[in-house]
Specification:
Length: 428
C-alpha cells in the first residue's frame, strides 16, 4: 500500500516522498483515512510507529481544502487545530513535523510550552494560527492572559494521552475541554489503553473509531532486550565498559533520578565519553542544547529521566540503556521504544541490581515473559544491595510550580503494580 492510496493530496504526497517515506505504517494506514472522513479517533499504538504523521498529515489536509489556498483564516488569537502534548520536547518535535509537512501549504503553526518567555508566544498568537502545538500548563497560562481563544477550533488532538495522565495533567485536560467548542473533531493517541484512558476518551470523543495496531502495553518487537545483573555501585563502570567495548557512537541512557543523571554525566566525561543530561530541573535552553548535541553527534551519551524523554526522536538510534529500571512499569515500554523505530532493529540493555527486583518483576509481567540474565565477565554481582530510601526520583522530589487561578496540583494515577505514587510536575 502507498501513501497515495490513503486519500492524501498531491502537495502532501510530494512532501512525504521528499522526506524519504514510501510505505505507510499500520497506524497511518488505519488512521489517515478515518481522520480524513472527519471521524473521532481513539488510536492505540506503540511508540515509534509513525503516529505523528498519522494525525498530522490528514489534519493539514482538512485545514486546507485547497492545498494552496488554506481554509478560513483564523481570527486574531484564534486557533483552528490544537495538539496537546505532555512534554516540551514532544511539543517541539510535533511542531517540527507540522512545519515540515505543511511547507507546500498556506498553513500557519507554532508551538507553545513552558521554560521559555511567554511574550513571544503571545505575539505569535495575535494574528491567529491554523495549528497550535501546546503543553497543558502553558496553554492555560495563555488562556488566562486572554492571549488565545478557541471559537474557531475545528480539531483537537491529544498526543500520548496515557503519559499526560501519568504526569498528573488530567485536571488540566478537563479544564481545557470546558473551553472548547462542543462541535469539533477529536483525536486521541495513546501507547496504552487502560481504564483511565477509556474513561477520558468516553468524556471527550463522540462515537470514536477505535484503532489498535499492537496489543496494549506490548513492547517493540524488533528491539532485542538484554538484562545485565551487576552491583549497584558498579553500574557506571559497567556502562563505560559496554560503550567502549561495542564502540557505540550514540547511546540514550535512562536514569530514574535527576541527581543520578547529572552524576552519571560527570563520571562519563571523566572517562573521556562526551555526555549530557536532560531532565525537569534543567532549563529549556539547556535541554534543547543537550538534545541538539546528541542529534548532531557532538554528544555521545544522552542521560535522560522519564519525564524529559518524550520527544526524543532519533533516526536509527542503535541502543538504549536502562541505567535504572523505572518505577512505572509502562515507562519501560516507552524507553525501549526510542530505539527500533520505524521498523528498524534496536537494542535495549538494562543494568539490573538486586534492589530493583520488584521493578523487574513488574516489567516482566507487562511484557509477558522472563528476561534472560546475562552476566558480563568481571562484573558479576557480589551480594544483594539494600533499597536506598534517599533516591531523588524525579516524581517524588520535584515541587510543582503553582497553578494559575489557584486550581492546585493535579494528582497522577497513584500506585500501579507496586510503583511509587507521583506528584504533578512543574508546569510544561
Amino acid at each position: 500500500m502507498s501513501f497515495g492510496s490513503l486519500g492524501l493530496c498531491d502537495e502532501l504526497l510530494k512532501t512525504v516522498a521528499e522526506q524519504g517515506y514510501t510505505t505507510p505504517s499500520p497506524i497511518q494506514v488505519a488512521a489517515i483515512p478515518a481522520v480524513l472522513r472527519q471521524r473521532d479517533v481513539m488510536a492505540v499504538a506503540q511508540t515509534g510507529t509513525g503516529k505523528t504523521a498519522g494525525f498530522t498529515l490528514p489534519m493539514l489536509q482538512l485545514l486546507s481544502a485547497d492545498p494552496i489556498q488554506a481554509g478560513p483564516r483564523p481570527q486574531a488569537q484564534a486557533v483552528r487545530a490544537l495538539v496537546i502534548t505532555p512534554t516540551r520536547e514532544l511539543a517541539a518535535q510535533v511542531a517540527l513535523s507540522v512545519q515540515n509537512y505543511s511547507r507546500r501549504m498556506n498553513i500557519h503553526s507554532a508551538a507553545v510550552f513552558g521554560g521559555v518567555r511567554i511574550e513571544p508566544q503571545i505575539a505569535q498568537l495575535q494574528g491567529g494560527l491554523d495549528v497550535l502545538v501546546a503543553t497543558p500548563g502553558r496553554l492555560i497560562d495563555l488562556y488566562q492572559q486572554q492571549a488565545i481563544n478557541f471559537e474557531q477550533l475545528e480539531i483537537l488532538v491529544l498526543d500520548e494521552a496515557d503519559r499526560m495522565l501519568d504526569l498528573g495533567f488530567v485536571d488540566d485536560i478537563h479544564f481545557i475541554q470546558k473551553l472548547l467548542p462542543n462541535t469539533r473533531q477529536t483525536l486521541m493517541f495513546s501507547a496504552t489503553f487502560s481504564k483511565e484512558i477509556k474513561s477520558l476518551a468516553k468524556g471527550m470523543l463522540s462515537n470514536p473509531l477505535l484503532i489498535e495496531v499492537a496489543g496494549a502495553n506490548s513492547t517493540v518487537d524488533k528491539v532485542k532486550q538484554k538484562v545485565h545483573p551487576v552491583d549497584k555501585a558498579r553500574k557506571s563502570e559497567l556502562l563505560i565498559y559496554l560503550i567502549k567495548k561495542h564502540k557505540w557512537r550514540q547511546v540514550l541512557v535512562f536514569s530514574r533520578t535527576k541527581q543520578g543523571a547529572d552524576s552519571l554525566v560527570t563520571v562519563l566525561e571523566k572517562a573521556g565519553i562526551s555526555a549530557a543530561s536532560i531532565h525537569a530541573n534543567r532549563t529549556q535552553h539547556a535541554r534543547t542544547l543537550a538534545l541538539d548535541g546528541f542529534k548532531n553527534g557532538n554528544v555521545m551519551v544522552l542521560v535522560a529521566t522519564d519525564i524529559a524523554s518524550r520527544g526524543i526522536d532519533i533516526n536509527q538510534l542503535p541502543c538504549v540503556v536502562n541505567f535504572d529500571l523505572p518505577y512505572v512499569t509502562e515507562d519501560y515500554v516507552h524507553r525501549i521504544g526510542r530505539t527500533g523505530r520505524a521498523g528498524a532493529s534496536g537494542l535495549a540493555i538494562s543494568l539490573f541490581s538486586e534492589d530493583e527486583s520488584k521493578q523487574l518483576q513488574s516489567i516482566e509481567g507487562i511484557i509477558g515473559g522472563k528476561f534472560e540474565r546475562e552476566i558480563i565477565p568481571n562484573f558479576a554481582p557480589s551480594k544483594k544491595a539494600p533499597i536506598d530510601p534517599s533516591d531523588d526520583d524525579e516524581y517524588g522530589n520535584f515541587e510543582a510550580d503553582p497553578k494559575p487561578g489557584g486550581r492546585g496540583k493535579s494528582q497522577g494515577r497513584g500506585n500501579r503494580g507496586g510503583n511509587k505514587s507521583k506528584r504533578n510536575l512543574a508546569r510544561c
